[in-house]
Amino acid sequence: MKLLVGLGNPGDKYAGTRHNIGFMVADRVAERHRVAIKKKGYQGVYGVGRAAGEETTILLPQTYMNRSGASVNAAFKSLGLTPGDLIVIYDDLDLPLGRIRVRPDGGHGGHNGMRDIIAIAGFKDFLRIKVGIGRPERGDVTGHVLGRFTSDEKILLPQVLDLAADAAEVLLTDGPLEAMNRFNNCNLLDSL
Question: pTM (2 decimals)?
């Protein structure tokens, strides 16, 4: 069993914002593999099914981003997993839109959702997919993160979601080394 977590904030107010790109990617994986995310539990909504041939629970925490650890830890413990069975997908300000980065472990990098997961779970050696949302050239970082994608960004967004979902599938089937080799140097902006 694998636990694939997309990070974001619940509610219509945050739907479609940059901070919710983790939700969007997890939804894309669920759609591809016909995993219905309809069950309520683990302080989130989730679905269970086969994703890329692996029995997988796909979880969207409903605790707000900064409190994601409670939801992730509840599912992780209930499912009896090891850290290598956990994949977390989230937004990254330091990567431009069109780039993703797969990592087998690491710190929180200033991301409050990741900070909370690491603090509550008590370990940081779990798989992660960072999805670039870019950093604003100037101005309010919080406004940028919680803002909606621009019309130009919306053109690229489906390809970004597909790329990150592809990376999640490779993590599930072939592991982190293969996923890092295939996706860490991809830049969708190069193909435009």
Answer: 0.95
Question: Is residue 19 annotated as part of the catalytic site, yes or no?
Answer: yes
Alpha helices in 56-148 (DSSP H): 68-79, 112-121, 141-145
Q: Distance between CA 100 and CA 171 in Å, rounded?
A: 13
pLDDT digits over 56-74, tens only? 999 999 999 999 999 999 9
Structure tokens at 63: 């605790």
- Helices 151-174 & 176-183, crossing angle to 10 degrees? 150
Locate 80 and state its tokens. Answer: 């009896």
Apex 176 CA angle, 159 and 51, nearest 5: 60
Cβ-in-10-Å burial (0-12, 13-18, 19+) of 44 comes to buried
Q: What is the pLDDT of residues 128-177, one digit of tens each?
A: 999 999 998 887 899 999 999 999 999 999 999 999 999 999 999 999 99
